[in-house]
Specification:
Length: about 350
């Protein structure tokens, strides 16, 4: 672990959160345990005397504004109210506010508490196919809800389009800074980025293709308990292509040979709720390549995180290999590969 996320840093982060615990009515003997640290830090708080358990998300500074976090929590509340998908409830502080400001050695961080959801990540193997079928169903319900939901005034979330991912905005950094990327690999990824730009421009952002999505529904953000699949961590939800949610679901395993089986299961599940024509499914490999390049950029800009350090140069080399295969397929059938018909 790099010095940025060393024990001293994590202890200071936990202490900052601890000072805010009374706002949720938690006592001084509450135990804090780090669960994950990636874009944000997630802690489990356990109060021994009452048995009360909460999960706290301490936000990375400079990523989401308070208004963006409030908007995420508004959608979560609507999803729970409308019984769209099992997802944890945000827990208000004693004053009714859902977001706390905490001081981290002069740095302002936002913190949100959620109820603890029981369960564990879906396991690989046959069960993973089963859960991807269920995930397709959940994604279709989420998308249907997003299309019909009347968003509250002031609702604001990031837009996950090409510009935000690989263009000028680069919300997750620049893939060109990826560890281990050489000149030959960079040339391959430059070609892939240009091809992605053209294919996505042809696909378009019509309202039936582009809207409010989870945008990070990977296995780490799924919990299974007694046969029920719950979705957590809407931190990256925003406006993007609906079918991008599948690409996000296979984050970090894009290269695995069983991905086509997972895709088939996801599509099958989706179609139990909403139509998904074959010509629409043709765009899925484009979103997989887009997501892979976005994650490569994230690793470059979040080198201090355990995830980035674990993936390292090997993930960059894998991205280049996938891009080569992607371009070969595009070149084999120019003008038609991976393209759902553009809408006039």
């Amino acid at each position: 672990m790099s010095p940025v996320y060393d024990d001293a840093f994590l202890a200071r982060l936990a202490q900052g959160l601890r000072t805010a615990l009374p706002r949720w009515g938690l006592s001084d003997d509450t135990e804090l345990r780090l669960l994950t640290i990636s874009e944000n830090a997630t802690f489990r708080a356990h109060e021994p005397t009452t048995g009360r358990d909460l999960v706290f998300r301490v936000h990375r500074p400079g990523y989401h504004t308070r208004a963006e976090i409030e908007s995420e929590l508004a959608w979560l509340a609507a999803l729970r109210r409308d019984h769209v998908v099992p997802t944890p409830a945000a827990i208000a502080q004693r004053d009714g506010d859902l977001i706390a400001d905490i001081d981290d050695d002069g740095i302002l961080r936002h913190a949100v508490a959620f109820e603890l959801v029981s369960g564990k990540e879906p396991a690989e193997g046959e069960d993973l196919t089963r859960w991807f079928r269920e995930l397709g169903t959940i994604n279709a319900r989420l998308h249907r809800h997003a299309k019909r939901w009347q968003r509250p005034d002031g609702f604001v979330r990031k837009v996950w389009d090409y510009d935000a991912m690989l263009g000028e905005a680069k919300l997750w950094g620049d893939w060109r800074a990826a560890p281990g990327l050489d000149e030959a690999g960079r040339a391959v990824l430059e070609r892939a980025a240009l091809r992605l730009h053209d294919l996505l421009a042809a696909y378009g952002t019509d309202k039936d293709r582009f809207g409010l999505i989870h945008a990070d529904m990977r296995v780490a953000n799924l919990l299974v308990d007694d046969g029920i699949l719950s979705v957590i961590d809407f931190d990256d939800c925003g406006f993007g292509w609906y079918l991008y949610d599948f690409a996000a679901a296979i984050s970090f395993i894009e290269h695995e040979s069983y991905v086509p089986t997972l895709q088939a299961a996801w599509v099958e599940g989706y179609r139990t709720v909403a139509p998904l024509p074959d010509d629409e499914c043709a765009i899925l490999p484009v979103f997989v390549m887009l997501r892979r390049m976005l994650l490569t950029a994230w690793i470059a800009s979040h080198a201090e995180t355990p995830t980035a350090q674990q993936m390292g140069e090997a993930y960059t080399h894998g991205t280049v290999a996938l891009a080569r295969a992607f371009l070969e397929t595009c070149d084999a059938e120019p003008g038609s590969t991976f393209r759902a018909e553009a809408r006039s």
